Amino acid sequence: MIKFDLSTLLVFLSGLLIGFLIFVLIYLYAVLKSLSRKVKIKNVEEEDIDEQEIRWLIIDAQKTFNDKNIRNNEGYGALLLRLIKELTNDIASKFYPNSRNPYLELTIDETIILANYISVRFDELMSRRILKLFRGMTVNQLLFVKTTKDSIEGHKIVKQFRKHRVTSILKGALATINLANPL
Fold first, then answer.
1. CA distance 57 to 54
2. CA-CA distance, 92 to 100, in Å (whole number)?
3. What pLDDT is recorded for position 46?
4. Does residue 169 fall inside a structural domain?
5. Which of 11, 61, 99, 173 lies at 20 to 30 Å from 38 by C-alpha?
6. Domain span at 154
7. Is there a domain that residue 22 lies in?
8. pTM over 0.85
9. Of 169, 131, 134, 177, the residue nearest 153 (C-alpha)
10. Does an H or E element contain 82, and which?
């Protein structure tokens, strides 16, 4: 049988207080240690990396994405996701050829820096003159604009104009349509 008296209660409360203080001290140490730490970025040997080959990988992924048959069969989002995964893996394998999972070789700090770079770069692109108009649009609305543009370009009349070299009027019309093409 357990007795509850004042001495037992004081021992319990003092143990609880000491445990809480130790936890707070460890937490403060971890926070202060992380604030004083500099970001470490691993150096990759760049002698084996061919930038032209990486450009070819990107161009190949763009051509695959622009192929309407593949895009219609696989679906817009599924194709985009698959191509991003493949491109990420292919490029990462150029930097880390001996790794089983080369796309997982980035540290958390490097991933944060990369995400920040992508965010800033995308913001710069979307701040350009024509693209500013599309900042408030949803992705679904942008896809609708692109689909409309593609359907206009695929129309029989437009194809006939191209076939018969009626380009001056057509180029003006397509330039107007391309203003609405965010992609």
1. 5
2. 11
3. 53
4. yes
5. 99
6. 137-183
7. no
8. no
9. 177
10. helix 76-95
